[in-house]
Design brief:
2 copies of one chain form a homodimer.
Chain A lengths: L1 H8 L1 H10 L10 E9 L5 E12 L9 E5 L26 E2 L4 E2 L4 E5 L20 E2 L4 E2 L9 H14 L7 E5 L1 H12 L6 E5 L7 H15 L16 H15 L2 H14 L2 H4 L6 H14 L4 H13 L8 H5 L5 E5 L9 H13 L4 E3 L10 H4 L5 H9 L2
Parallel strand pairs in A: 3-6, 3-9, 4-5, 9-10, 10-11, 11-12
Antiparallel strand pairs in A: 1-2, 2-6, 7-8
Helix pairs in contact in A: 3-4, 5-6, 5-10, 6-9
């Protein structure tokens, strides 16, 4: 209870802290990488798998200063910096990554890679192979013939690129939400390579509730007649289902305190809902308008594949979470967000307890900010010192 | 944090307590009541408003032993007892209401009234006037021409019936969720009449987040082409939108711990989601199957009207919650549920703080059980002693 009041009181301080940690923004370049004959966990071989990637900082002579950032479900490898000085926005974690920032690119070589089945298929700066890509065997989009992919598959894709760059050691892997899953999976899949993991708004495995929450978001798309079992690329897109799905995702990703702050005045002035059942409050309408707008930029099938990746996540992808924890050698920093309604702190705590039981090195801290899951991105600046200290410790 | 572990540990005890408080089940009879020319807060006059009601216990000679129970959004006046000994299930609060139970019908005359716009229009034991009723002016269903109704309108409807029965004093009003809104509104609208209020999983007003959450559930129906601005009674019902909406309501009404308990074994055995993106986990499918099944029994328009009632709720329906609190003379018992994801305890706490600031008599206790909002119904037995003590205090 006290935490809740504490968090809200500290809202102003958090935002201030976010702003003060927001320094110089670097210029970054997007690159491409192609993997041939990539074999997925499910046993399918993809003849060609294209991914985009970007980096910041300089690889040192021993190639031992690498930090790998994995992105969240609707995100891309654009973790920080700008492609052009005129870009309106920098990458999502520019708050903490850059020259002189918490993840100091004067010291570290930071890189990030677009996931397979990345949902931003219409973004010219994103390169990915997924259900919207052409299947060379048929000359048509893969659709739902694309294999189900897991966090482990993404790790394996990233591993091929790192090997190509001659990188055999990761100073740290880090990411928020889906990015946390992939970052943690690295430490279980390649324990000798990974020295540290920073898990932001993450957990050790999707519990049943997470699987169901993500499942209902997926069902909104599958229930749209236009989805047509994933074969929609030559016809109308399942835009209604996609918007429906995103509206629920957006609702869950922002905690109540955030809504209160943002919409209180607007909703209080709305008279229409009092007299016309067909009208709704501004906050509902804005969530929907945003969902409809965003539905147009994402590929619904790709989004479904990444929802599934999150549903299937269990560290190590073995019989139990405990088994997945066993090989870990990395130090782990867990940063859940106090009001998170997608990956609640209780899920992160369960994971911490299992790590401690196996004598793993864990640092646990909570993000106190009013947005919930979204605070893994927008309030990350409040944990700049914790992150910086964790990275510098030997 | 400690509360969370505490609640889970006590799960078995809670359920046990629920069962032990479940004693004899009484036989109840459903009655009808018609109000002529009922005027709503929005200024519309309904020529005829029919409601169903039921009671248990005996009205004493001074008519001072009355407890009025108001039902939750998808509920009915069937608060306890059975209509026939063969009925599979008793009313939803049979755990605590009946002869010798926490709300002892050997002492109290307990009654409950179907809400206007009740969603159970196909239930032969429910009597209500709402959007699915025939508008005598047109000879067709009201649809969205039915006026928006508020918690205050429901109180006014109930007040007419109580006046008809010669009841001028309420020993207590009580209800869960929407039923809490109506129970509390009674104490602000008729402060001289109401001695006590028991608010279960309730708050003092819908904050913006609540308005938005309820709004997205409503939008699922309004976005279904079959909804046709509420004019669907002669054609296909907006069943898909209704099922979509209910799936999100069911997801929110049951906390993560409940899903873990119920579906862990089933989900762990599901192999299809690993190999086919078109398939989902059993927990998702069961939520959807239940939503589809339930979508067939509720009237979507009526459900929209009650969602709206909840969105509009602010105690007293004046300019501020503080103003609505001012007239209260009743003692208030607040019983939020620790893991509630619809009306979170922080909302109830805010309300408690405002009540205390105005020197109102408040008793606050939390339901510790793993289902969240639903625990206002299924774990109510764990608070039998608190309720009984609160009712008996002078």
């Amino acid at each position: 209870m006290k935490h809740r009041i504490f968090a809200f009181t500290f809202f102003v301080i958090c935002i201030f802290s976010t702003i003060t940690s927001y320094g110089e923004t670097a210029i970054v370049e997007k690159k491409k990488f192609v993997i041939e004959n990539f074999k997925t966990m499910s046993g399918t071989t993809l003849p060609e798998l294209l991914v985009g990637w970007q980096s910041m900082g300089t690889l040192n002579s021993t190639k031992s200063n690498v930090i790998l950032v994995s992105h969240y479900l609707l995100g891309t490898s654009h973790f920080a910096g700008k492609y052009n000085p005129d870009d309106k926005r920098a990458g999502y974690w520019d708050y903490i990554i850059g020259p002189g920032k918490a993840v100091d690119t004067n010291k570290y070589f930071v890189l990030s890679i677009d996931s397979p089945a990345n949902a931003n298929t219409k973004n010219p700066n994103v390169f990915t192979t997924g259900p919207a890509s052409i299947n060379p065997e048929t000359g048509k989009q893969y659709g739902t013939d694309f294999p189900v992919i897991t966090a482990r598959d993404v790790v394996n894709v990233q591993h091929v690129l790192l090997s190509h760059l001659g990188i055999n050691e990761l100073h740290a892997t880090m990411g928020a939400s889906m990015g946390s899953h992939i970052s943690l999976e690295w430490a279980s899949a390649f324990p000798e390579m990974v020295k540290r993991v920073i898990s932001v708004v993450g957990h050790g495995e999707s519990n049943v509730w997470s699987q169901t929450q993500l499942g209902t978001w997926g069902a909104s798309i599958r229930n749209d007649p236009n989805w047509n079992k994933g074969d929609y690329y030559d016809g109308a897109y399942p835009s209604d289902g996609m918007a429906e799905s995103l509206s629920h995702l957006f609702l869950a990703a922002n905690h109540g305190h955030a809504y209160e702050k943002k919409f209180k005045a607007a909703n209080a002035q709305n008279r229409e809902p009092w007299i016309d059942i067909k009208e709704d409050f501004e906050s509902t309408n804005l969530i929907y308008d945003l969902a409809v707008k965003r539905a147009a930029i994402y590929d619904p099938n790709s989004y479904l594949y990444l929802l599934r990746l999150c549903q299937l996540f269990r560290l190590g992808h073995g019989d139990s979470l405990e088994a997945g924890i066993k090989p870990l050698k990395a130090k782990i920093l867990l940063l859940p967000s106090e009001f998170d309604e997608i990956i609640g702190p209780y899920m992160t705590e369960n994971f911490r307890n299992l790590l401690i039981r196996q004598n793993k090195h864990v640092v646990y801290d909570e993000i106190y900010a009013p947005w919930g899951h979204l605070d893994g991105i927008i309030a990350i600046g409040t944990k700049a010192d914790v992150i910086s200290k964790f990275l510098d410790e030997t």
